[in-house]
Amino acid sequence: MTTEARATAGVDVAELLGLFPHGTRLADDGVLVVGGCRLDDVAAAYGTPTYVVAEDALRRQARRLREGLAARWPRSRVLFASKSLPARAVYHLMHDEGLGIDVAGGGELLLALDAGVPGSAIVQHGNAKTDDEIRRAAQAGVGTVVVDGEGEIGRLEQLGRDGQPVLLRVQPGVDPGTYAGVSTGQRGSKFGVPIEDAPRLLNRLANSSRLDLRGIHLHLGSQMFGLDPYRKAIDVVSALGEFDVYDVGGGLAVRYTFDEHPPSIEEWLDVVTEAARQGLPSGAELWVEPGRACVAESTVTLYRIVTIKHGSPTFVAVDGGIADNFEASTYIGTRFQATIATRVGGDELVDVVGRQCESGDRIAAGVRLQDPVIGDLVAVPVTGAYTHTLANNYNGALRAPVVFCRDGVMTPVVRRDTDADLLARELAFP
């Protein structure tokens, strides 16, 4: 596209493409190409809505995190926070790229194991682990269990495996400066133990005959734009003593819209490792647990325009919404960019809205499209995190498929729900 065309379109196409997965380009006829696949071809093959994952972009981000941390702190480990995109293909890919796996529920453990991830590569989380989940972790030989509260210690000693390595999750009492619904490291969080209780519980774990205390865990929150909270939190936990492992969690923000400018992965790793050098033992292992930063930028969601209502604002309604992108309407205030996949850019100001029965079902507010008409294919970037995770059947929606694209080859890794799926859990009625 020429400079003149870009100016006429009202959107800087290069900047817009920068929100799409690494390697995204325009075909000669202007159609978006992700993972070497034309998006109109993906939609023709798998329908809409569909999550399109650029496999090479996903692998690139995993390597960027693993290699970046190792270059700064050789005794290190990157764990994929799998709650962000829990699909077997993603578990397999992350393990293949050398990342450990963080699971926070029995279903995530099941998926990871079924994807070929060995139990030793898995870290189990959860503020309310059930007895069944503790037993299943023991049977799988889960490498590390994060102890989330005092009451969990006795249950792990009774139900877990002998010699189970554990970390204690603490609340460093640091405000992460993000949305309340995804803040976890501050006082009053449901996660972890207050910092003042940590010495007593660490002593109890150190003296347990069945558990092997390895170190400290913390996680401040999600979609964090500021880096200073990481410095403060690492300084706080450094006063708890010297341990073999310090897991400082994840939470780095990603860029959803043109107005957002989060730190880069490299800037984040610089701050985390600098703070670790200031306060943690030089021989300790340093772990991080990125989820959103691992997967968000790898994925594009495809929709079809169903209706258009001209006015102030003009509503462009698509065939998805809250059912496939719950975050667009929830507690973190996320809004997305969007473009017509076959006519990138544009100057017509619209709100791209979903079809579910909520006024908050706005996927991309105040975006510019090029002459939208019913039937057009709409592409929404940065949808890899917490979309498939939170997919639901609101208004009887059929959950969307996940399709990997690499070198022009489309591979479905999660199929679309069917009508039979929707009815399968329904039992007889009087």
Question: How would you describe this protein?
Answer:
This protein folds into two domains: 3-55 and 296-422, Lyase, Ornithine Decarboxylase, Chain A, domain 1, CATH 2.40.37; 56-294, Alanine racemase (TIM Barrel). Helix 4 runs parallel beside helix 11 and helix 10 runs parallel beside helix 11 (265-279). It has helices at 3-9, 13-17, 39-46, 55-72, 88-96, 106-114, 131-140, 150-159, 198-206, 228-238, 265-279, 292-295, 419-424; strands at residues 25-26, 32-34, 37-38, 50-54, 76-81, 100-103, 122-124, 144-147, 164-171, 193-194, 211-217, 245-247, 285-288, 299-309, 315-318, 339-340, 348-353, 362-369, 377-381, 402-406, 409-414. The longest helix has 18 residues, at 55-72. With 430 residues, it is an alpha/beta fold. Strands 4, 14, 15, 16, 17, 18, 19, 20 and 21 form a nine-stranded mixed sheet that branches. Helix content is 28%, strand content 23%.
The CATH fourth-level homologous superfamily of the largest domain: Alanine racemase
Main sheet overview: 9 strands, mixed
* Mean of pLDDT: 93
CATH class identity of the largest domain: Alpha Beta
Give me the secondary-structure category: alpha/beta
Approximately how much beta-strand content do the residues carry? Answer: 15-25%
Cα Rg = 23 Å
CATH fold name of the largest domain: TIM Barrel
Separate helix tally? 13
Uncertain spans: 1-9
